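> example.struct
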């Protein structure tokens, strides 16, 4: 019986997706729920499990194809027996140099070669073919991509390290040898400088890589934000001493009681919610000529992932304890690295927080995540001299930046809301007093 393999139904905000790389080839056996292919949308990369066990009879859509939700991309024959696929046919399909061109290492088996090739991204296969790499060489490349897949950068790095027949390192396949510069004898009227004529250009490789769907979507939304919103940023500084003392005092008992570490982000989320309750327009959004005031607090937390910046949402943050907030943030961070966030977790949000301080940022002007009206930027906490009661003392200080849409948020509301966040941070409540 033939079973269709279909693209999962996508969310309303996602019109199409891209097929990244098939993990199986036609004629190979697949188990039920085995991952057949990774599918990239502008929000996440999701795995497509096999709907039934059998033989992958036909691949309708290949790597890199643009597909829509519900579209048939392959068929599985549940009654067929798997066909033997010799290593040479895999080499030919991938467009690689035959393994006989160069002896493979003794540790490379006939079975290991197809696995290594199957684990290559499409761009990596093309580069390997241009560099005439054989199966043995490919098997020795350690993949740095997701699930150990070999990327174009991995192949480029291998080629650069590979010695040429003359003993010198061979150039990257993405670059061409620099053409010899013609010798020019300057005329007496010509003005030349010794450094300009003597400095060789050398090998200057370039690499052109297509944007991923997520990166293209990030670019689109950032441009949209700056072209449609009147973005203005206000700044303030926060004395983090009270929070530092609170964490030092309660971190052991907090972790023991809740099985999660007491971080800083939950304090910022709590402070943001307190300010949004006082100034609802900062929690609002623009819809045409209307202002939508949200009676709930869904806080987006910007998280760095290998594919780019993603912003999962903490729903109803006002109803959560600090332990629950910390637990969600830790979970978001882990699953962002593994590419396991769902579309629902990345959709919506009434206000966002981005923490450039973890990378050492001292000051920045964050860009609003449309259609939201504001975003809070957190920066590195550093010890600085400050004046207290006529004395100069050293305190851990942090700069906050609130970017807001001046179309609906007046400067007064923006400044006062940031002051409210500052006050909530400088006079925090014990996290153990919450339920």
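> example.seq
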């Amino acid at each position: 019986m033939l079973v269709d393999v279909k693209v999962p139904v996508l969310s309303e905000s996602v019109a199409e997706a891209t097929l990244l790389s098939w993990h199986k080839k036609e004629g190979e056996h697949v188990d039920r729920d085995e991952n057949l292919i990774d599918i990239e949308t502008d929000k996440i990369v999701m795995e497509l499990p096999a709907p039934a066990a059998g033989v992958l009879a036909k691949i309708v859509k290949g790597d890199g194809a643009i597909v829509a939700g519900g579209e048939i991309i392959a068929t599985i024959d549940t009654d067929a027996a798997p066909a033997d696929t010799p290593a040479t046919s895999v080499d030919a399909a991938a467009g690689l140099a035959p393994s006989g061109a160069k002896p493979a290492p003794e540790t490379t088996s006939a079975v290991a070669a197809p696995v290594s090739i199957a684990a290559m991204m499409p761009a990596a296969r093309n580069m390997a073919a241009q560099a005439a790499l054989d199966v043995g060489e490919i098997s020795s490349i350690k993949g740095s991509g997701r699930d150990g897949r070999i990327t174009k950068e991995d192949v480029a790095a291998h080629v650069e390290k590979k010695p040429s027949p003359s003993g010198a390192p061979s150039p990257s396949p993405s670059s061409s040898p620099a053409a010899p510069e013609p010798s020019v004898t300057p005329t007496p009227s010509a003005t030349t400088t010794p450094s300009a004529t003597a400095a060789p250009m050398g090998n200057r490789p370039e690499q052109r890589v297509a944007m991923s769907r997520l990166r293209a979507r990030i670019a689109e939304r950032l441009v949209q934000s700056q072209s449609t919103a009147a973005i203005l940023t206000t700044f303030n500084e926060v004395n983090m001493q009270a929070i530092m003392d609170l964490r030092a005092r309660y971190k052991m008992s907090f972790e023991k009681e809740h099985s999660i570490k007491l971080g800083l982000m939950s304090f910022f989320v709590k402070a943001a919610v307190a300010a949004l309750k006082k100034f609802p327009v900062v929690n609002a959004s623009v819809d045409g000529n209307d202002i939508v005031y949200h009676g709930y607090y869904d806080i987006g937390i910007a998280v760095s992932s290998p594919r780019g910046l993603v912003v999962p949402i903490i729903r109803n943050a006002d109803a959560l304890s600090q332990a629950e907030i910390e637990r969600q943030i830790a979970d978001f961070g882990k699953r962002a690295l593994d590419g396991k966030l769902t579309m629902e977790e990345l959709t919506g949000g009434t206000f966002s927080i981005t923490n450039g301080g973890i990378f050492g940022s001292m000051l920045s002007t964050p860009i609003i995540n449309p259609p939201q009206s504001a975003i809070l930027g957190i920066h590195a906490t550093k010890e600085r001299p400050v004046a207290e009661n006529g004395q100069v003392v050293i305190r851990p200080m942090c700069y906050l930046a609130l970017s807001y849409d001046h179309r609906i948020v007046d400067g007064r509301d923006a400044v006062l809301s940031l002051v409210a966040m500052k006050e909530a941070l400088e006079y925090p409540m014990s996290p153990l007093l919450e339920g």
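> remarks
The chain is about 30% helix and 25% strand.
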